[in-house]
Every structure is written in structure tokens, then in C-alpha cells.
Write a structure and sequence with these properties.
Radius of gyration: 24 Å
InterPro entries: Amidohydrolase (IPR017439), Bact_exopeptidase_dim_dom (IPR036264), Peptidase_M20 (IPR002933), Peptidase_M20/M20A_hydrolases (IPR052030), Peptidase_M20_dimer (IPR011650), Xaa-Arg_dipeptidase (IPR017144)
Protein name: Peptidase M20 domain-containing protein 2
Domain Peptidase M20 dimerisation: 216-303
Structural class: alpha/beta
Number of helices: 14
Family: Belongs to the peptidase M20A family.
Pfam family, one: M20_dimer
Amino acid sequence: MSQPNNPSTAYLEAMEGDIAKRVAAAAPPEHHGENYADQAKVWDAAAAEAEVLRETAAHIVADLHAHPETAFAEHRSMAVLADIVEQHGFSTHRGAYGVETAFEASWQSEDFDPERHPTVAVLAEYDALPQIGHACGHNVIAAAGLCGFLAATAVLDSTPFAGRLLLQGTPAEEGHSGKEYMIRGGSLEGVDAAVMIHGFGYDIGAHAWVGRRILRVTYRGVAAHASSQPFMGRNALDAASLAYQGIGLMRQQMPPSDRVHAIMSGGDRPSIIPSSAEMHIYVRSLGTRTLMDLSGRVEDIVRGAALMAGVEVELEWDEHPMTLPVRNNSALVERWAATQARRGRTALPAGTVPDTVAASTDFGNVSHLVPGLHPMVKVSPADVALHTEDFARWAATPQAVDAAVDSAAGLAQVALDFLADAEFRRAVREDFDKEGPVAVEELLARGESAPAGN
């Protein structure tokens, strides 16, 4: 019996060697605080509160890991997190923004005025993957976000800062777009910045995340006996095969940061020309404009294949709202790196790990509407990939708890700085305004998803 060839590890080994050199050359940021009079005191207080919450973080990491729930089914996970927040004296809105397994808690100063005072949202994910559970470490994200919110609010109770801090529990990131549904329900109205973390094999201040669109294609032809009257058929599976090959040929002309993955099915038995066939296609790109351009090129191929095979084609884009590439805000990233240096971590600069090592997240949609922070925090060894059973094991270790606590301190410190430091807020906004806001619905309304050449 023949066996599949094992892929060569040469490219990965060369890439890891190059990354190791960049890591060795990376230096901690020069900024260590003192942007406003009490910053050092505030940061010390936030770090102390994060340590007080270590047992809470460990409980969340372990509990969610032991009870993984997939997208839109995170009823228990949401309840566990909301209960903890309520035990700390906050009320929670469960089912926030029209999403049943989302929740929100808030703190605001007595004199809070949304026209004059800033709002920061700390985001927490908690959905898991089918079969392999928390192999993306959302249990760590949840612990970091919740404990970061609690640590910041504990400091805010004894400071004169004016503003508002939100904790938003955001379900259904894996294969879905929970944050986009929340956005459409109003989750970012009045929000000036949004922050969260993600576990990884490296500490990185800003890493690439590609946008993603989903296309489902149905081809409908005419069945016929494949031997006696094949000329009376129109083969739907031929169309799917032609489209699959066309996508493969297009890859030569795709930018290195673009990705297309497709699967197909069709037919019941070899003696019958298939009258129907289906394709499920993911389209990904590092840029918003390139994502829309690639979508158009894929659509042209899919429609062209139907024409060649003489069959009907039906396309369904974005059964779940598309996710956009993450826009990393440089001012937020710089401040994050400073917080992590105090924890003994060097948050590596963008590009240390190649942009081609990239997945997708619905935080991209958030980051196109408000300034966003989405750093990577080391949970596992560098050679352990996300979405694997190996990473799932690391997501329940003491290293995962350390990552959650370090992240909680950093998220609290960045959020507190944003509320307290007008100069910092200006720098954050200036970076965001270089491109301005982009909403998914507006992007589609402008017709930028039309097939290339139309």
C-alpha cells in the first residue's frame, strides 16, 4: 500500500532560523512610563491587581478548557464569565447587542460625558473549535480580557480619571463573525478604542491577520447515463473541477499574502453524469482592497467554469459576514510593548514572523471602525501551531495562566493610559485616521465585491 509523501520541513526550518535571528536582535522598547504624572504609580497598581486576580485567571483558563463550546453555543462559558464579573460587583447584560451568547459589563466615572470623555472596550473571546477544543487558546483570551477589565476598574475606583471602560464578551470567532454581528447591534457606538490579546508561540506586538470571505457555489447540470447517452448530459462536477483547476492556475499571479482554499463534492455513482456539484471556498488577503479584488477574480473563474461546462451556477457570498484584515494601531502597539517589557516579555515588532504565517479573525472588523490592539502573547513553544491538539494542551498549562496574567496587566495599563493621557489618545487617533473607518456593509454597498473586469 502506497503512503502519502511527508512534506519537507526545509522551508519551515529555514523560516524558523530567520525568525530566531530577528528575535535575538529585537530589543525592549525604550518607553518605560511617565507619560503623565502618576503613570508609574498607576501601572504598578494595575500590575498588583492583575496578580491578585491570578487565581481567577487560572480558574477561567482551566474551566473553559475543560468545557469547550463552539460558536454561538457558548452558553455555559458566557455564564461562567458573567458570573465572575457579577461577583465583583458589576451588572452584566447577557445576550448583548442581539447575540445570545455575548455579554457586556461597564464602569464609568461619575461625571462621564460621552461627548468629552473616552471609552475603551476590552474584548474577550471564549468559543472553541469542534473536536479539538481550545486549540486556539480562547480560554486564555477570556481570562486575560476579564481580569484586565477587573484590574483596571480596581485602579479606576481610586483615581480621578474620567471615562468609561467596557468588557465585551465576544462569541463565535472560529469560522464565524460574532463581532460583526455585535457591531451591527451597536457594540462600537461611542467606543474610542478596542483592545484584546491572542495566544501564540511568540510575543508579538503587531502581527498580520488576513481578511476572509466565504463563497459557496452550487452547479446544476443535466443527469444522463455516462455510458449509453453521455451526450445528453451536462456535467456539474466538470464545472466544479474546472473551477478548482482555474483557481490553482491563478495562484501563480496571486500576491504572496493571498490565499484561496477550496473543497468540492458531486455525483452519486460513476455511471451517472452528476447533475449537481458544490464548492466551498475561502478567499483570504492581507489587504482590504486586495481581498475584494481576489474575490472578483475567484467569482470570474467560478462563472467561467459554468459557461465551459454548460451548466447553471448559483453563488452565495459570506454566509457569515466577511472578516477584514486587522489594522494594528502603532501607538497602541508601542504602549503594549512597554507594558510587556515590565513583565519580562519582549513584544516583537511587526514582520518578525513573516506575514505569510497568518490566519483570520473578526477583530479585523473592529479594527477598521475604531483603533485596535491585538497583540500575540507567548503561550507555547514557537514550533507549536494554532488549531492543533498540541496547542490545545499548552492552553491549559501554567504558561497559559502566566500569559493571561501578564496580558491582564498589559491590557489594564494600556486602557488606563488611554483614559488618562490626552496626548496618547491623539497619537492613537492620528494613526487610525491615516486610513479612516471602513465598515463591511459600506464596502459591499460600494460594489467593491463585483467580479474583476466588470
